[in-house]
Amino acid sequence: MVQQLVNVLALTDEADFKTKSGAYPEVHRTPSAKEQDNKISWVLKWFENRTFRPGGLKEKEYTQFVRFTNWFIMYEGRLYHRGQDAKHRLYVEKKRRMYMLTAAHDHVGHRGFYATNQLLIQRFWWPEMEKDVNWFIKTCHVCQERQKTMLKIKPVITHTPSIFQTLHADVMHMTPASNGCPYIAHGRCAMTSWMEGRALRKLYFTLPHLFRPEWPDSGGIRWNPVEFEQISLKKQEIPVDSGGMVDRNPPESTGMDQNRLKSHFYK
């Protein structure tokens, strides 16, 4: 059974291998793993010719290389990594590693790191294979959706709207004047559309004096005195052009000064 699995994974059909394999990224790999992969080509040449010596190596480096080759054996043209109790594992080339990871993980039901790693580590070897398995699991979209990690997310405090918290106000010019009042200040509750109006003799007033006395104090109204003082207790003077219409965007106004009575917020 084990030998059949080795034959299926290690000696795949060429067409099937091309469809299931992909590029093997090495961004996540350590310099040590890349260095060991580079030495594998030397190891293969060393098994063909025991007198082979890579160029540019000093005597100490060559001794370390020979010691590195003792971790491998060649059997029937395949390179194996020595293991304990003669459990040697087949070396997997770079071009076949993505196929191995996909076959051992995706094709057996996305069973996570431990099952995938145990399936591979008992039969195959390449430098830092466990880190590659861990990276492959973390980049799997299906595993991301199935993970059972409990994330502690802070509760979102929602704002409960209430009546008369937001006032949309406007000023209109009225001709001819009624009882000496040429202007009308109009306010509407944004939530209930409750409307109030005041006749004005001049455009110089405070918002609380206009509307707040007529608004009911029941119904869950919660006034914020600080913001109410900052926003509405300032006297508002609306300039009027020669035609008698309200100039909503005077050149010198910016920010809250623009459309002064159009939108005021009471929280």
Automatic annotation (TrEMBL):
Domain of life: Eukaryota
Integrase zinc-binding domain ranges (all copies): 93-148
Pfam families xref list: Integrase_H2C2
Protein's UniProt name: Integrase zinc-binding domain-containing protein
InterPro entries (UniProt xref): Integrase_H2C2, Retrovirus_Pol_polyprotein
UniProt-listed PANTHER family: PROTEIN CBG26694 (PTHR37984), PROTEIN NYNRIN-LIKE (PTHR37984:SF5)
Disordered: annotated span: 239-267
